[in-house]
Structures are given as structure tokens and as C-alpha cells.
């Protein structure tokens, strides 16, 4: 490996430190032998997302940023659960609480910060916690199961996120705030009042201008007393009154500390070879508690450590976004009214929106947004660059008078270093360079080349405007014709027409005859073409497993560790004691990691090894539940007429009948149904591809609902009187969808594209067409085989799909 | 186990040609290590570590094979089968291993060091 590597030690295995390492590994992967010490027993995780874990929208696993494997792969020695207790800055050695020592040439301190625990009497009682790490989060999740009344001290960013999380966990939550306004360090009184009203509407309680004097109770907390003598009963208290840089180690080691560990513009501390980054550092008198500065600091430090020329770090202009679902708040720069500032304000109490821009002598110095924060990145940029207010900006932001800027003008005004894609950190400048250097002409090409727009897709409109900006009319010309993916210029309809006309029957043939640019296609077009072939030639086309996505090929859902989940069919969500026993026995025997009840009323065996799949299927001896497929997943049912006093129809019976009739057939996308026995709609028809609601005289059929990424409420397709009519209508609708939808297009998008009236005309009003569609789908259904038993038969001949070749 | 030494590489037999189907990866397990073997449409065989370089890991053998690339089944990264290089805009590298075909036998080439690490005798 040539020259001897220098030793780099990182204290603090969190976002600031590890982000710096990632930069270093990119710049100069061979320069350092890296050792990391972390007090927490976890690899690096996204601390900002703890709110989501608490809220329940993400799991702990989801927020891991660097897996154990990442450390291994980069040959980083990682000591978790190990706290450094001393730094000898002369000998350049660190010592840990468990006696471990490590010598360094360079040392990075990224010790972060600790929550401030108010030193009021009783603060050490059981049931009082901070909200800072995974351990705190686990304590809060546990507390919510046992206790009812929570108090959160602190109405700032972190306090409100913690409070909302506890509320979602079912606790009765009161937020106690010392000041008159929530988030007063980020918001002005108007936005703060709107925020408070909204959070009250969501169920939080507030006690404003209250100072906690004492926490009372026995061993465990029972309540709080305030300085005005009033009390609040509470059996769980979260302190979110702020954070304090964790500097104990630095000051004990003789490194200069004020509020934080003092660093210069290159993140160097007072000790030779020792650097600090993130929340523990104090730069030009400022300690930051948000994520943006830590990334900027890390980038400068990494360059410094790798001997790469770098601009000094000159501080970060802060902006804030609150991470609570359904509440959008943003502020940046100066946000409070002051006599010398000009304030532009627009408050809309009906739409619950608020916008404010603050000017100092015509220069934009700050802004606040509530309700709609789509202007946040532009305001941030204006403030950062000290942009002067113009008629155009005014018109654009306040939407009245003047000329409104076109989207193209707006992207033209963006700075080159402004981030367009926040998920992948791609700037306007790098997108423009990529478009020019590689002659890119479509959003997909920009995605492939730069990564912009590949994660959440929120910036795709901006990317499109950038293309327009660079290419001008050439781009407009391109836009009219886009293929289904980068491998072809042909649209879905052109491909389907050609398959019919030229009678193409295999994926290979389609790609060859239609002159795909990429002869064997990609993960987008291969499954799509395979579906279109099966849809057009149900008898003739032989399904091509190598063009199926892994889940459909394996008849099980792959998990991130390479194990699979198994969901047996449970028609209408009804099972029997015998089946439950069997499922339990299999779960025990094959040591599945979890048995979960799914959203669609099924049981999911999570964590089955690939080799065990055939054995599990064989022992279950139940049909596949198709939880992995672009096909009918489940028919969710309510109890209905059989048992429920409100039931007017046999929803379970109808659900089972529909599931047995329409299972297994390939669809453009996954497909969910629900059947309800009365309009109370307990099985939630409004978010299903087909949702059926029974009433005294028959059934109502709703279509195009979706509860996923883009929620949509289903629309009424028709009302029918008899069960026969209903089954026929479901069949005809489903077949029409199969024939006309784009691959991966859910009914929610398809109904909007085709239009409900057009679908009614084809499926409801035209009796002949309805009958024809129904007959066609029945013919296809008749040919289908149960996939697990089929796979088992095949597996007896060859275990190719499931077994590894075992050496030795 | 058949072994054959050639230019400092130890070749071990991992199967015969019919053990590897076109465009359908297969896992070879050597003690604790998993290697994914792919056979492309033109008949070329490739061997790579069965582990995505994506920071969240995951297997590669179940990926879709297109030309001389495999598409990571979990994160859709495009990885060159011959070099193990992850294609832009993503980046990363997967360890590749040489394969040779003798008659119908498929043999995997390991350096002495790799063979030693996997606990395979010469």
C-alpha cells in the first residue's frame, strides 16, 4: 500500500463527524487509517429524523445512515458504546472509559450536544427525560404504552416535535413554554399564533408563559408546580428547553472552550492537530444546533485534512423548517418586525397561509412562511445573496400587480451553487454543466447523469425548467415525444400497437424489432413489455421470469437483508383456528423474525431465508397471498350482515367471492379492493382501487382510490342491485384497466387520465362492451395457476431459483 | 474439490455450464462468503461479490441482467459485470472474480490470499 498512512481518530459517531469522514474518503481514500469512537451503541443515524421515528412514520432502521458494513468496507475501526474520557494533546493519545487507547496524528472532535436538563428540584426523578438520541426515543415509545399524561417543557422546534410524537403515540400532551410565543427564536408572533392554533386543533395543549418551579412526586414524577403556584399533573416529562454543546472532554483536556469548543475558520481548535465540527464547535462566537452548518463545516474540514485548497468557513445563514406532518413552517434571516425594516406581509386566515418578507433599505434580509413553504429555497437564496427587492420579486411572491416571472426566468435567476435536488445534493450549476457537456435533452437523462430528481422527485419541475432554460425551443420539441424509458423513444401506446400489428411475442423480439437503443432494456421497460405481451397474448405469451422484478420472480417480497416475507392468502381477511395454528407452527419452525398483521388484513411472516421459501410454502399448504405482485393484493372486508347489527349486506361473503374470482391475474400495478356492509365504511372503500359499499337495496362501486404516496378518494362508478351485476361490473372495470393503463399506473392516476365519464361509457353504459370485457377477463382467469404450488413442482425438478451452490 | 493453479490464482470448480441460466443470477456460497454468478445472453459468465455497495447493502444475484450489466434488485443501481463498477450517477465498486470454463466445468479463480481467507485448502 506504499506510504504509511496517518492515523485519524474521530470522537463522536454522529452526523457531523461521519459526514466529514465521507468527504475525506472521497477526497483521499488512502491517506488515513481511521478509528471512530461513539458513546451510543449504534452506527451513524440521522438524528434529525428521530422525530419521524417517534411520530411512527419511520423505523429506527430507516434512519441509519451508515450501516456496519460501510465502516467495514472503508476499513474504519469502529468502537461503539465507548466514550473517550481523556485526550493527551502532547502525546497525541486518546483514552476511553473502558481503557482502550488510540494514538492520532489528527483528531476530530464531534461530540455534539446534550439536552439542557433544568436544575429544578425533582429533575432527577424517574420519568424525566431529554429528547436527543435513540435511547431517549425508546424511553418515550415505552412511556407512551404505560402512561397517559405527558408534559413537554419547551415550545421550540425540538419540544414541538417531541410533543407531536407523543400525541401520535396516544398520550395526552401539554407543552409548557416560558415565553408568550411558540418557536419565538424562529418565528414572528403572527406565524407563531397560527402554528399554535393548528397544533391545538391537532390535539396538543399549551401552557404559555409558565416557568417550572418544581417537579413533584415520589420516586416517579407525578406533576409540575409553576412559579405562579399553579400545578399540572403529569406522569412523564420531556425536557426540550434547549441544547448545550458537549465540551466536557475538551475542557478537561486543556482545549479552549467558551460556550462550545472554539475553532477557527478551518475548524482547528487551540490544540495542534485537533479539530472540532458540528454542534460541539463554536465558530466566530456562534454554536449551531441545526444540520446545514454541520455539513458546510464538514466539507471545509475534510478538505483541510486532505490538503485540498479550500475557502474558509465563514458561518452559515440559518433557516428553520419544522418537521411535523401537516404543519409547514419556515423562517430565515431576520424574522421579527423592527422599526427600521420594511415589512411585506400577507396573511390568509381562510387558507391558513402566511407570508412575510423583511427588507432593510430594499435589501431582502429575512422571511417567514406558514402553510405553504414552496418559496422557502428562493427566499433563503435572496437573503443569502442580499438581493434587492424588485417589482418582479414582489409580484411573484405576493401574486398581485407587476409582471409575474415565468418559470424559466426564475431558474435563470437562481445562483449556480443553489441546491436544486436536496435529496442528492445537486446544484443548479452541476445540472447545467451536465446538460451542456453531455448534450442531455430530457429529465430522465439528467436524472441518470446527475442523480437530481431520483429520490423524492420534488425537484423534477425545476429540472425540466432548467432544460428549457439551456436548450430553449429544442427542449420543447423534445418534450412532445418521450419513450417509456431511456431505452426507447416509443410511447406505451406505440409499443402496444406495434406488438399487436407485428404480432410480437417475446421481450427480446419487441426490443429487437422496435430497435431499442439498449438491446436488453432496463428495469423499467423489461417488466413493462413483459406485462403488455401477457395482456395482449394471454394464451400465447410465455411469462419471462428474467424480465420480472425479483419479488414477482420469487413469489415473495425481498427485504433489505436479502431475506423474504411470506403472506398466505386469507380470502376476505377471514381465517380459521387450524390455519392460524399452521401459520404459527411454520413461523416457529423457520424462526421468522416477525409475524405482522398487514394493512390489508393478512398475516405476514417476515424474514424467511431464500432457501426456506419452498419449505415454508409446502408446510403452509395455502395459496399465495400475492403480497409481492402487480395483481389483486387483498379484498379488505368489514364484519357485515352476518354478525354486525348495522350490516345491510354480506360484505365478508362478497369479499371472499371477489378475491377468489379475481386473484392471480397480472395487472399494470398493485390492486386493492374493499367490501363494506353499510355506509359506515369500516373497511375503508374510499382509498381502494375498487371500493364497494353495501346498502339496503344493493351495492355502490367506487373506483380509483389510493391511500399511498398520492392519496386520492375513490369516485362513484355506479350503483347495482344484485351480486351478479356487481361481480360482472368489477370484472369489466378491471379488464378495461388492464387493457388501457400504462405499466405501473395505479387506478388513481389512470382514472384521472382517462376520465371517469369515459370509463362509465365503456364499462357501465355499454352493456355489450361490459359483457365482452367480463368474458375476456374470465377466459384469462381460467388459465391461471397457483404460483407457490407451481414453484414447488418446478423446484422438485430444479432448485435453481432458491438454492445457492454450496462449496465444501 | 478440483483445484488448479494458474498464474498465482487457484481455480476451483463451482459447477457446470448448465448450473447457470442466462440472465438469472446464482449464488455460490463459500463458507461465510457469497459470490453471485451471472451468465449473459451472449454466454459470458461473470462472478462478483453478492453484496451491493449501496450503504444499506443487500444481495445482487436476484438483479435483472441487461447486456453486461446487472441492476441491483433493491436500489436499482446499474453495475458493470466485468469490472464491478457502479454506473453514474451512483458510485461504488463490487469485487469481481475471474471465471474460466474447462469443457463444461465452470471454475472460479481466487488469489492465494482470498482462498486462504475463505479457508479453502489448496
From TrEMBL, chain A:
Q: Which UniProt keywords apply?
A: 2Fe-2S, 4Fe-4S, FAD, Flavoprotein, Heme, Iron, Iron-sulfur, Metal-binding, Nitrate assimilation, Oxidoreductase
Indicate the segments forming the Nitrite/Sulfite reductase ferredoxin-like domain, all copies: 559-621
Instruction: List positions binding siroheme.
Output: 682
Name its pathway: Nitrogen metabolism; nitrate reduction (assimilation)
* Cofactor annotation: FAD; [2Fe-2S] cluster; [4Fe-4S] cluster; siroheme
Taking every annotated instance into account, which residue ranges of this chain make up the domain BFD-like [2Fe-2S]-binding?
A: 419-468, 484-533
The residues the record assigns to binding [4Fe-4S] cluster are 638, 644, 678, 682
Q: How is the cofactor bound?
A: Binds 1 [4Fe-4S] cluster per subunit.
Kindly give the Gene3D superfamilies that the UniProt entry links to this protein.
3.30.390.30, 3.90.480.20, BFD-like [2Fe-2S]-binding domain, FAD/NAD(P)-binding domain, Sulfite Reductase Hemoprotein, domain 1
Q: Where is the NADH-rubredoxin oxidoreductase C-terminal domain?
A: 319-386
**A matching Pfam family:** NIR_SIR
Q: Which residues form the FAD/NAD(P)-binding domain?
A: 7-282
Q: Which GO molecular function terms does the record list? A: 2 iron, 2 sulfur cluster binding; 4 iron, 4 sulfur cluster binding; flavin adenine dinucleotide binding; heme binding; metal ion binding; NADP binding; nitrite reductase activity
Q: Where is the Nitrite/sulphite reductase 4Fe-4S domain?
A: 629-768
Sorted alphabetically, the Gene Ontology BP terms of this entry are: nitrate assimilation
Endpoints of the signal sequence: none
Q: Which family does it belong to?
A: Belongs to the nitrite and sulfite reductase 4Fe-4S domain family.
Q: What is this protein called?
A: Nitrite reductase (NADH) large subunit
Q: Which organism is it from?
A: Paenibacillus algorifonticola
Automatic annotation (TrEMBL), chain B:
- Gene Ontology molecular function terms on file: 2 iron, 2 sulfur cluster binding; metal ion binding; monooxygenase activity; nitrite reductase [NAD(P)H] activity; oxidoreductase activity, acting on paired donors, with incorporation or reduction of molecular oxygen
Provide the protein name. Nitrite reductase (NADH) small subunit
Keywords attached to this entry: 2Fe-2S, Iron, Iron-sulfur, Metal-binding, Nitrate assimilation, Oxidoreductase
Asked whether the keyword Iron is assigned, the reply is: yes
The cross-references to Gene3D superfamilies, in alphabetical order and at most eight, read: Rieske [2Fe-2S] iron-sulphur domain
Span of domain Rieske: 12-108
A single GO BP term for this record reads:
nitrate assimilation
Source domain of life is Bacteria
Amino acid at each position: 500500500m506504499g506510504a504509511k498512512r496517518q492515523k485519524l481518530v474521530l470522537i463522536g459517531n454522529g452526523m457531523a463527524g461521519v459526514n466529514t469522514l465521507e468527504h475525506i474518503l472521497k477526497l483521499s481514500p488512502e491517506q488515513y487509517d481511521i478509528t471512530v469512537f461513539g458513546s451510543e451503541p449504534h452506527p451513524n443515524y440521522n438524528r434529525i429524523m428521530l422525530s419521524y421515528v417517534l411520530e411512527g412514520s419511520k423505523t429506527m432502521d430507516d434512519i441509519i445512515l451508515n450501516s456496519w458494513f460501510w465502516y467495514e468496507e472503508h476499513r474504519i475501526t469502529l468502537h461503539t458504546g465507548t466514550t473517550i474520557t481523556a485526550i493527551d494533546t502532547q502525546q497525541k493519545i486518546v483514552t476511553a472509559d473502558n481503557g482502550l487507547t488510540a494514538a492520532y496524528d489528527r483528531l476530530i472532535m464531534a461530540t455534539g450536544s446534550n439536552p439542557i436538563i433544568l436544575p429544578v428540584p425533582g429533575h432527577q426523578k424517574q420519568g424525566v427525560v431529554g429528547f436527543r438520541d435513540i435511547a431517549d426515543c425508546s424511553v418515550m415509545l415505552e412511556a407512551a404504552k404505560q402512561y397517559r399524561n405527558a408534559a413537554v417543557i419547551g415550545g421550540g422546534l425540538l419540544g414541538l416535535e417531541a410533543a407531536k410524537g407523543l400525541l401520535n403515540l396516544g398520550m395526552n400532551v401539554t407543552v409548557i413554554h416560558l415565553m408568550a410565543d411558540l418557536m419565538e427564536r424562529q418565528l414572528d408572533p403572527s406565524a407563531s399564533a397560527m402554528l399554535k392554533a393548528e397544533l391545538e386543533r391537532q390535539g396538543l395543549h399549551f401552557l404559555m408563559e409558565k416557568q417550572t418551579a418544581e417537579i413533584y412526586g415520589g420516586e416517579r414524577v407525578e406533576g409540575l408546580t409553576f412559579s405562579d403556584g399553579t400545578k399540572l399533573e403529569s406522569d412523564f416529562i420531556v425536557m426540550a428547553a434547549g441544547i448545550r454543546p458537549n465540551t466536557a472532554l475538551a475542557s478537561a483536556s486543556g482545549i479552549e472552550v467558551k460556550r462550545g469548543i472554539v475553532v477557527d475558520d478551518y475548524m482547528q481548535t487551540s490544540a495542534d492537530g485537533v479539530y472540532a465540527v458540528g454542534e460541539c464547535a463554536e465558530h466566530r462566537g456562534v454554536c449551531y444546533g441545526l444540520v446545514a452548518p454541520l455539513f458546510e463545516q464538514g466539507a471545509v474540514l475534510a478538505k483541510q485534512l486532505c490538503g485540498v485548497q479550500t475557502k474558509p468557513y465563514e458561518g452559515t445563514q440559518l433557516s428553520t423548517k419544522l418537521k411535523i406532518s401537516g404543519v409547514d413552517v419556515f423562517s430565515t434571516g431576520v424574522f421579527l418586525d423592527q422599526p427600521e425594516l420594511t415589512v411585506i406581509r400577507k396573511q390568509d386566515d381562510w387558507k391558513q397561509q402566511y407570508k412575510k418578507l423583511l427588507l432593510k433599505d430594499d435589501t431582502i434580509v429575512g422571511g417567514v412562511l406558514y402553510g405553504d413553504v414552496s418559496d422557502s429555497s428562493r427566499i433563503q437564496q435572496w437573503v443569502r445573496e442580499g438581493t434587492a427587492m424588485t417589482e418582479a420579486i414582489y409580484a411573484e411572491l405576493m401574486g398581485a400587480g407587476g409582471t409575474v416571472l415565468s418559470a424559466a426566468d426564475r431558474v435563470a435567476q437562481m445562483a449556480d451553487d443553489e441546491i436544486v435536488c436536496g435529496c442528492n445534493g445537486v446544484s443548479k450549476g452541476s445540472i447545467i454543466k451536465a446538460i451542456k457537456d453531455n448534450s442531455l435533452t430530457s429529465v430522465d437523462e439528467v436524472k441518470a447523469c446527475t442523480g437530481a430528481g431520483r429520490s423524492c422527485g420534488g425537484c423534477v419541475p425545476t429540472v425540466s425548467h432548467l432544460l428549457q432554460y439551456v436548450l430553449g425551443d429544442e427542449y420543447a420539441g423534445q418534450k412532445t415525444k418521450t419513450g417509456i424509458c431511456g431505452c426507447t423513444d416509443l410511447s406505451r401506446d406505440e409499443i402496444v400497437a406495434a406488438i399487436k400489428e407485428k404480432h410480437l411475442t417475446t421481450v427480446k423480439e419487441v426490443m429487437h424489432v422496435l430497435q431499442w437503443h439498449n438491446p436488453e432494456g432496463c428495469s423499467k421497460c423489461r417488466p413493462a413489455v413483459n406485462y403488455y405481451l401477457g395482456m395482449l397474448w394471454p394464451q400465447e405469451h410465455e411469462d419471462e421470469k428474467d424480465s420480472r422484478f425479483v419479488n414477482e420472480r420469487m413469489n415473495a417480497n425481498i427485504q433489505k437483508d436479502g431475506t423474504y416475507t411470506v403472506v398466505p392468502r386469507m380470502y376476505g381477511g377471514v381465517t380459521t383456528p387450524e390455519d392460524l395454528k399452521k401459520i404459527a407452527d411454520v413461523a416457529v419452525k423457520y424462526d421468522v423474525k416477525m409475524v405482522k398483521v398487514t394493512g390489508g388484513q393478512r398475516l405476514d411472516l417476515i424474514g424467511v431465508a431464500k432457501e426456506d421459501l419452498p419449505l415454508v410454502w409446502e408446510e403452509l399448504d395455502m395459496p399465495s397471498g400475492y403480497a409481492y405482485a402487480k395483481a389483486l393484493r387483498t379484498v379488505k372486508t368489514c364484519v357485515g350482515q352476518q354478525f354486525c347489527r348495522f350490516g345491510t349486506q354480506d360484505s365478508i361473503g362478497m369479499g371472499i367471492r371477489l378475491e377468489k374470482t379475481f386473484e392471480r391475474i397480472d395487472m399494470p400495478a398493485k390492486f386493492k379492493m374493499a367490501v363494506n356492509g353499510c355506509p359506515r365504511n369500516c373497511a375503508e372503500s374510499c382509498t381502494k382501487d375498487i371500493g364497494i359499499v353495501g346498502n339496503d337495496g344493493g351495492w355502490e362501486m367506487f373506483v380509483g382510490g389510493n391511500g399511498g404516496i398520492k392519496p386520492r378518494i375513490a369516485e362513484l362508478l355506479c350503483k347495482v342491485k344484485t351480486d351478479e351485476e356487481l361481480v360482472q361490473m368489477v370484472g369489466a372495470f378491471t379488464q378495461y384497466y388492464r387493457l388501457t393503463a400504462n405499466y405501473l399506473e395505479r387506478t388513481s392516476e389512470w382514472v384521472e387520465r382517462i376520465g371517469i365519464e369515459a370509463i362509465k361509457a365503456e364499462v357501465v353504459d355499454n352493456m355489450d362492451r361490459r359483457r365482452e370485457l367480463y368474458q375476456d377477463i374470465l377466459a384469462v382467469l381460467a388459465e391461471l395457476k397457483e404460483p407457490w404450488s407451481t414453484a414447488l413442482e418446478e423446484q422438485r425438478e430444479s432448485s435453481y431459483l432458491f438454492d445457492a451452490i454450496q462449496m465444501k | 474439490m478440483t483445484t488448479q493453479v494458474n498464474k498465482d490464482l487457484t481455480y476451483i470448480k463451482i459447477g457446470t455450464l448448465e448450473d447457470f441460466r442466462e440472465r438469472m443470477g446464482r449464488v455460490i456460497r463459500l463458507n461465510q462468503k457469497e459470490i453471485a454468478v451471472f451468465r449473459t445472453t451472449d454466454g459470458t459468465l461473470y462472478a462478483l461479490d453478492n453484496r451491493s455497495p449501496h450503504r444499506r447493502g443487500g444481495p445482487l444475484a436476484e438483479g435483472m441482467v441487461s447486456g453486461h450489466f446487472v441492476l441491483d434488485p433493491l436500489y436499482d443501481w446499474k453495475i458493470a459485470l466485468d469490472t464491478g463498477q457502479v454506473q453514474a450517477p451512483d458510485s461504488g465498486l463490487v469485487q469481481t472474480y475471474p471465471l474460466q470454463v474447462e469443457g463444461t466445468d465452470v471454475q472460479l479463480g481466487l488469489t492465494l490470499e482470498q482462498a486462504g481467507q475463505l479457508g479453502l485448502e489448496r
